[in-house]
Amino acid sequence: MRNFFVFMSFIMVMATLFACGTGDSNENQSSAEQNEDNLKSEKWDEIQQEGTIVAGTSGTLIGASTYDEDENLTGYDVEVMREIAKRLDLDVKFEIMGIDSMLPAIESGRIDVAVNDIEVTDKRKKQFAFSESYKYSYTTMVVRKEDNSGIENLEDLEGKRAGGGATTIFSQIAEHFGAEVVTYGNAPNEAYLRDVHNGNTDVIVNDYFLSKFGVGAFPEFDIHLHPDLKFHPTEQAVAMDQDAETLQQQINETLAEMREDGTLTELATQFYQEDASKKPEGEIEEIEGLDL
After folding, report:
1. Percent above pLDDT 90 for the chain
2. Region 137-233: CATH code
3. What is the CATH class of 47-134+237-272?
């Protein structure tokens, strides 16, 4: 009998311990889920409280982020961001910085979002969250008119000097095919284009729309868009912190409204004379072997 009572006491103690352990586990799990939910909404709550969203941009990309004749910041990306902020009942403050600084500035908390013709890639999506795309394009080259800078295909980039930002996708493409990338910091388009014109560099690998307007802005330079090369289709979006899920949702819903009511088309046509908010037609070469 005594052994029976000892055994029953042991069972009761174990049951109590098990129940306590299960309770702690559920409580910890609930706490973890709550912390995760807080993280997802924290950035949005902070922005709403301040009443201002801080956006990084360069101010040096013709068509996307540039200054007009009155020294006012404008461009497709800038005006898209302004409209998003307006519809979210927020002010927007633009921080001017080089493209190589923008994604680190999101990580450090200096800015909330970046809008600067930023391409969405698989590698970047591991570190950052992106909105739905508001621009679609592809990649081309700015070369000298007289001989296309000796470039007739992508393989001819080997040994050439390509002007570009250190961390851009376009520089990665140039390096992939053997070009030496010459970096400039947050220099204006004119510096890149002039160097191709005078032979300091051979080529600029860049977005079709940005390249088209860059070349058009300086007709005195002996440069043009490569007549035959269209490659690496791209999508551009608002970049933000990976944990800013609620902010991402708010921006996506606003962009969907802007697409539906024609605002994206109107802004894209205003700045690019083409509807860059829709995917381009025609055959565009995919590049294999890029870890983007």
Report:
1. 77
2. 3.40.190.10
3. alpha beta
